[in-house]
Design a protein that fits this description.
With about 210 residues, the protein is mainly beta. It is about 5% helix and about 40% strand. Pfam families: Laminin_G_3.
């Protein structure tokens, strides 16, 4: 069994039991990452109570495929049909071959943000900010706000869902590329906290946020 350990102390470790579906650890001597093959690699963690209608997601990644939908991160088995869900796509469906990233935040209604102009291969620090009750939705790429929306996200909080990295529900839409690191918060970080977290992740990716 492969395990990516949660360093927060909450014990929400990402697990992959299948030997064929385990991303591989790689390094160039300076940077360190997990390599996802774009076929069947992924991790999952069992459902837990998010406990808030707020979220900040910061991922350091490198996508190497733009021709097929890739789920970098998703809470729930499918954010398209689950209330209180979050997702980052690299790239999103319907915008292939265009160098896009997509951030989805959803109460009972989905708000999807798209940032373009990042063709593969592309290393990036991706930051998604969300608050359902105030319809806050922002996507930052390499320390710069790339997309935002005030569209209705409906009601409720982010749900008690399992979370997945690399594929939807450990099943479809495999991400091809590298994961350098990630942080998940159940609140919207302050501006100084965002910059500090992005700088920490950037040092792991070499993306220069």
């Amino acid at each position: 069994m492969a395990v990516m350990r949660d360093k927060s102390g909450n014990g929400r470790h990402m697990v992959q039991a299948s030997a064929l579906s385990r991303p591989t650890y790689q390094t160039d001597g300076v940077l360190h990452w997990l390599q996802f093959d774009g076929v069947d690699d992924s991790f999952g963690a069992s459902a837990f109570n998010w406990g808030s209608d707020e979220a900040t997601l910061v991922f350091g990644a490198r996508k190497t495929l733009d021709t097929a939908t890739g789920v970098l991160f998703e809470s729930s088995a499918a954010s398209t049909s689950s209330a209180g869900a979050l997702a980052i796509f690299a790239p999103p469906a319907g915008a292939l071959n265009a160098g896009n990233y997509d951030f989805r935040t959803k109460g009972t209604t989905s708000s999807d943000l798209r940032a373009g102009g990042y063709p593969t291969p592309n290393s990036a620090v991706l930051t998604g900010l969300a608050k359902i009750s105030t319809d806050l939705a922002k996507l930052r790429v390499n320390g710069v706000e790339a997309a935002s929306s005030g569209s209705d996200q409906g009601t409720g909080a982010f749900g008690a869902h399992p979370i997945y990295i690399g594929r939807r529900n450990n099943s479809i839409f495999p991400f091809q590329g590298r994961l350098y690191g990630a942080t998940l918060f159940n609140r919207v970080l302050t501006a100084p906290e965002i910059l500090s977290t992005e700088a920490w992740i950037s040092a792991k990716t070499g993306a220069g946020a």
